[in-house]
Amino acid sequence: MAFRRRDKRTDRQVLVENEDVPHRDNAIDNGFGDDRFGTNADNSDEDDMKCMPTIDNELNISEICNHRQVVDSDAPPDRFNFTYVVFYLLGTATMTPWNFFVTAEDYWMYKFRNTSINGTTTVLTPMQKSFSSDLTLAASISGTTFLILNAVYGHLVTLKIKMLTTLIIILGIFIVTTSLVEVNTDDWQEQFFLITLFTVVIINVSSAIMSGGIFGVAGLFPSHYTTALVSGQALGGILSALAFILVLAFGAAPNVTALIYFVIGSSLVLLSTICYVIMSRQPFFIYYCEGRDKYKILADTPSHSRSVNIGVQLEPNIREVFGKIYVEAVNICILFATTLSVYPAVTVLMQSESYGKGYAWNDIYYMPVVNYLFFNSGDYFGRILAGLWEIPRDNPHTVLLLTVIRLLYVPLFLCANSSIHYFLPTLVHTDAAFIIMIITFGITNGYLANINLIMAPRSVMRHEKEMASSIIVASLSLGLAIGSLLSMAFVQML
Q1: pTM of the model
Q2: Which of 160, 354, 448, 458 is deepest in the core (most CB within 10 A)?
Q3: How confident is the model at residue 13 (pLDDT cuts 50, 70, 90)?
Q4: Separation of alpha carbons 39 and 50, rounded Å
Q5: Distance between CA atoms of 231 and 453, rounded to whole angstroms?
């Protein structure tokens, strides 16, 4: 596809190298005629690229942006919505294995119990006491570090290498973890403790690279593919919550519970790997990832020939990209710092108003259903709602205002009904009020998160979209780390 500008001195050409778009119907003339777009053009904002001819044989990156638009009219169809479904699946795969890893708390407590005492005891061993905090610390530091590294250097590594390598590593770790469930580790608990933390680091490093890669690529697609990805993440939370509730209902032993969790997690990662390999060979996926993403601005030539084969690959600059999306990055960092500061560390300590009266709902199921299932369901609904009803649109400052207002949830949760209040008063007494709070907390989290993830790639040029999405995901992870640290302080404040 060629972009031609003719003046009295010479022909200057700006060529877009894309073998999948061979038709000349998409050529845009500088005369701004009515026929510059193909008849089947898709006018969505996700499919636009702005470009400008270079002058005097010098590539001026600042002049690439102009008022011309390329709207591709011959994008192959997403047959049977396969790519959309796989994005959904990959979103689920980025969260569910780790959720299962964390949810198997009874299993880890069993593995690190005091084996010198027969029967059960309420006294926790040092490893039992420190495991949750060590798990959170290892996951937060490793995940956040590599998400930031991915945002800076991720564009230097191909998506295929990032996705397949990380998926295979996660699958291998889960296979090893599953195989250790039935192994007696009582005689080497300390070694098993260190092995577990090491696997946590590897899983989170791999998940960070995979998440940064797939979110970066999702920014190259129309916005509803980003919605599919983030909705898949929320769906993973729902699946984990349902599995936890079912385990409580059947009263399975810790080893059996962990085996079920890890087998499901391994199967999900294996299915994601197979589906990704198939998706990567689909024309629709190739068109957006390996076609439209490889635009080159070629130097001016005085020749009328279109056989120019020398050019310069446009490379994103992280400072320029961050300067365009820093508001969205701050938004999503504050958003997830707010969420993680009280959920689940604080909210899991809340109790039903009828707790201790002998009702199974109040004593056993209230907290798993309300704290995990209701929150994740609200989060899932909020992300879908943002994809259908994107308001505010392209206004990050309004989103920032809404994110700051959402901070009001923090004191409300800190003052909700709990038996461990020592310093703060109880202001939220009823179950109905707490349920409304947790559902709306989840909805606002999902809605505002998806708005930011959709908005950021649209605020930059075509070759910057992948880096923009990676920066936003790194900011999200930074928010999670900050929120986890705040949650420790908030628990002590209760």
Answers
A1: 0.75
A2: 448
A3: very low
A4: 19
A5: 12
